[in-house]
Design a protein that fits this description.
Elements (H helix, E strand, L loop, with lengths): L12 H4 L49 H4 L2 H4 L3 H6 L3 H7 L1 H64 L22 E6 L8 E6 L3 H4 L4 E2 L10 E6 L20 E5 L3 E7 L18 E4 L23 E9 L6 E9 L4 E2 L14
Parallel strand pairs: 2-3, 4-8
Antiparallel strand pairs: 1-2, 1-5, 3-4, 5-6, 6-9, 6-10, 7-9, 8-9
């Protein structure tokens, strides 16, 4: 076994790393020109390493890699190269670009949070929009359909002469009409010739989704006392949405099974002053929800010992529109006795006076 490093083509190892055109030319015996052949013998004075003539290469080809010419070089230890290879951990610590890459997840979290917040706000806005559409339009359609059903039921009951639906309950007080049942029509010519709603018994949430509701402990139509109704201003059919346009002297007609009752808004029709009535009861007022005395037998009078001598009508709704902070109140008084429907098949004169 040889103990010295091999020479190939009569060239030193260092010559292998040089380009082929810079390497020394070989003599006829295969050794570099002018070189001592004995230096190419191994320590055992073995025969010289035969020179191998370099293969002719065309300009189109690159030099053969060292691994293909001398495979043993890659098999040798490469401690120097391994030691020179930098540690990935140390380079990461010194590389600001790497540190910036580590910071990027924080920015990504912020962007993700902002994106999530934006999506939440958009979703919430859509939900609110859908709720508004439902309250203002869908519930109106539902109430209109229910009003048609109540109208059919009420007319059918009147034709069947149901005694519980009459206006005469002496002394007022709690009626015997089931909550949610229709028992009268309300017509307001100032709100349109076709304005008509079924009045239902009770002012519960379910009752008011069907139409204007009667305060169960108030008088019935045409009776002495205060026939009081509540109705939504927006949504649920919006029966009292334009209640604020009523002026002194405007008519409100209540139709029962056999009678028309015409009420007139209190005030001076000539001047439009709601507070000009001699009774001291204003035709229109805005109060807080806690001012329940507006539906007392004598509106505004909190004294049960005083017996009413007139028949009043009170309409209550929310104020302003799209809010329930206050209540808009309309007070009216009965204008003469009730008119029999049999004598006025086309309705009372108040329906056509304007």
């Amino acid at each position: 076994m040889r103990t010295d490093r091999m020479r190939v083509d009569g060239r030193e190892d260092s010559d292998l790393d040089r380009p082929i055109w810079e390497q020394p030319a070989a003599s006829d015996d295969g050794y570099p020109a002018g070189a001592d052949a004995t230096q190419y013998l191994d320590v055992a004075n073995g025969p010289p390493v035969p020179a191998v003539a370099p293969a002719r290469r065309s300009g189109r080809h690159q030099a053969v890699p060292e691994k293909s010419r001398l495979g043993s070089r890659d098999d040798e230890p490469s401690a120097g190269r391994d030691q020179a290879r930098p540690s990935s951990h140390s380079s990461d610590a010194a590389d600001p670009a790497t540190n910036g890459a580590r910071d990027r997840p924080r920015g990504s979290l912020v962007r993700t949070g902002i994106r999530g917040l934006g999506q939440t706000l958009i979703t919430g806005g859509l939900i609110v929009l859908l709720f508004v559409v439902y309250e203002l339009f869908i519930t109106d359609l539902m109430t209109d359909q229910r009003q048609e059903e109540l109208t059919d039921e009420l007319v059918q009951n009147w034709e069947n002469d149901d005694p519980t639906l009459g206006p005469d309950l002496p002394g007022g007080g709690l009626s015997q009409i089931p909550i949610g049942d229709g028992f009268a029509f309300i017509r307001i010519p100032a709100l349109g010739a076709d304005y008509v709603r079924v009045v239902v018994e009770g002012t519960t949430t379910d009752a008011l989704t069907q139409g204007p509701g009667h305060y169960v402990d108030s008088a019935m139509p045409g009776e002495l006392g205060n026939f009081s109704l509540a109705g939504h201003r927006t949504g649920k059919g919006s029966p009292f949405i334009d209640l604020d346009v009523l002026a002194p002297g405007d008519a409100v007609v209540i139709e029962t099974g056999d009678t028309y009752f015409t009420y007139r808004v209190l005030g001076d029709p000539a001047t439009g002053d709601f507070g000009a009535d001699a009774s001291g009861i204003p035709g229109q007022q805005i109060v807080s929800p806690q001012d329940v005395e507006v539906v007392y037998p004598i509106p505004g009078v909190d004294d049960a010992t005083i017996v009413p001598t007139s028949a009043y009508l009170t309409l209550t709704t929310c104020h302003p529109k799209f809010s329930n902070e206050q209540r808009l109140i309309i007070h009216a008084v009965l204008d003469g006795p009730g008119l029999p429907k049999a004598e006025y098949p086309d309705g009372p004169p108040a329906l056509t006076e304007n």
